[in-house]
């Protein structure tokens, strides 16, 4: 990738943080990137295309940065701790505000909905991989929709990130509740073989 294109991608995120999505334009991006604003259209076609590309690249970089942490997760509580650490870093970097702006814009702009959804899928795919590994052989896995659960976990953290801006204590309580659910799953997994067979039987009956 050329240096100019990368400067435009970085400048787009900087403009988002400073001006919000309603204030992002070729002019504000060009100013943040220290390049001629006409290069936005030359390299990306439109401001929306550039916004989508910047969102996807930044998300890929953050997912890659946490890949080893995800791979080392051994319990659901450890997964939630990675989520907490990720949230703290994203907040410090200003990426929570970027996510909020992209989600807001995607509600009314079809051209931003696709790239924003693609960026979110990078996180849900990573979470789903961890959940499949952690829950292999668990009675819970027999009734859990792992891809759906991964989306629920990702959505919960997105909601908590946005919620924290208006109710920090409430966001903390929400994280504590997720920890309690993780403990419950771990307790189920630690049941003896007889109890696990009984639980499986009850689960199958409930699904019938």
Explained architecture:
- The structure is a single chain.
- By secondary structure, this protein is an all-alpha fold.
- Helices cover 81% and strands 0% of the residues.
- It has 11 helices and no strands.
- Helix 1 packs across helix 4 (47-65) and helix 9 (146-164) packs antiparallel against helix 10.
- It is elongated, with a radius of gyration of 20 Å.
Concise synopsis of the structure shown:
With 208 residues, this protein is an all-alpha fold. Helix content is 81%, strand content 0%.
CATH architecture of the largest domain: Orthogonal Bundle
| CATH homology superfamily of the largest domain | Tetracycline Repressor, domain 2
Helix content: over 70%
In the residues, how many domains can be counted? 2
Morphology: elongated
Named CATH topology of the largest domain: Tetracycline Repressor, domain 2
Strand content: under 5%
The H-and-E topology, N to C, reads as HHHHHHHHHHH
CATH class of the largest domain: Mainly Alpha
Rg measurement, Å: 20 Å
End-to-end separation? 54 Å
Mean pLDDT: 84
Low-confidence stretches: none
Number of distinct beta strands: 0
Key terms:
mainly alpha; Tetracycline Repressor, domain 2; Arc Repressor Mutant, subunit A; about 210 residues; about 80% helix
Task: Please specify the SSE layout and strand pairing.
Layout: H1 3-19, H2 26-33, H3 38-44, H4 47-65, H5 67-72, H6 76-93, H7 95-106, H8 110-134, H9 146-164, H10 168-189, H11 193-207
């Amino acid at each position: 990738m050329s240096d100019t294109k990368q400067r435009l991608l970085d400048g787009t995120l900087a403009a988002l943080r400073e001006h919000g999505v309603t204030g992002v334009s070729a002019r504000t991006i060009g100013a943040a990137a220290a390049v001629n604003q006409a290069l936005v259209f030359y390299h990306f076609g439109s401001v929306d295309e550039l916004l989508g590309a910047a969102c996807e690249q930044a998300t890929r970089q953050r997912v890659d940065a946490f890949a080893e942490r995800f791979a080392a997760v051994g319990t659901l509580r450890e997964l939630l701790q990675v989520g907490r650490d990720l949230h703290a870093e994203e907040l410090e970097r200003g990426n929570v505000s970027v996510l909020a702006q992209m989600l807001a814009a995607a509600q009314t702009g079809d051209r931003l909905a696709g790239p924003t959804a693609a960026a979110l899928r990078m996180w849900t795919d990573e979470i789903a991989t961890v959940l499949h590994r952690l829950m292999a052989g668990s009675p819970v896995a027999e009734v859990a929709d792992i891809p759906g659960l991964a989306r629920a976990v990702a959505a919960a953290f997105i909601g908590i990130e946005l919620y924290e801006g208006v109710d920090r204590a409430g966001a903390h309580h929400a994280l504590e509740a997720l920890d309690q659910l993780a403990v419950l799953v771990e307790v189920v997994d630690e049941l003896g073989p007889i109890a696990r067979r009984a639980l499986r039987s009850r689960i199958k009956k409930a699904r019938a």
